[in-house]
Amino acid sequence: MHQDRDTSQLELFSQSENAGELKPRQVKVSFFTRIRGYEKVLLLVMAFVLCGILCFSLGVERGRRLSFAVISSTDRSASFTIQLAVFKNKEAALREISFLKKQGLTPQAYRKGNYIVLCVGKFSNSESAQPLLQQLQRTYAGCHIRRL
Q1: Last residue of some domain: 40, 66, 92?
Q2: Are the CB atoms for 147 and 140 separated by under 8 Å?
Q3: Does residue 140 lie within any of the structural domains?
Q4: Tens-place pLDDT, residues 77-90
Q5: Interatomic CA distance for residues 136 and 39, integer angstroms
Q6: Residue 7's pLDDT band (boundaries 50, 70, 90)?
Q7: In sequence order, which residues have a C-beta less than 8 Å from that of residue 125 and are 6 or more positions away?
Q8: Domain extent at residue 51
């Protein structure tokens, strides 16, 4: 009976060469080294498509904001206009446009960076714009003739 105990103890504690040594730790492997090559390509394609969709939607939204009021470039003979004012606030520009329309003028507004430029009339040369400019200078002190 005594010998049975010894053999059972040998089973629990082996006497191999590695006994008592610490087992080496497994090195943590990063996410990209664990996935296969074709999976990396698929992930990159999905990220590229997602970035494309995001950029496209942001561009559409920016285009909607920029289409506030655009001067139509169909009339090539009219290359001069009178610039009345520049606004940073959209609501103030809209109020001024409605005021000018009530006076019987044809206002145009377009964006230039963060500002809204308000102009009146289309003229073929700067001399034809002079009479209206003199009339508008009473109300708008800094107005001037400019090219479209």
Answers
A1: 66
A2: no
A3: yes
A4: 678 999 999 999 98
A5: 67
A6: low
A7: 80
A8: 31-66
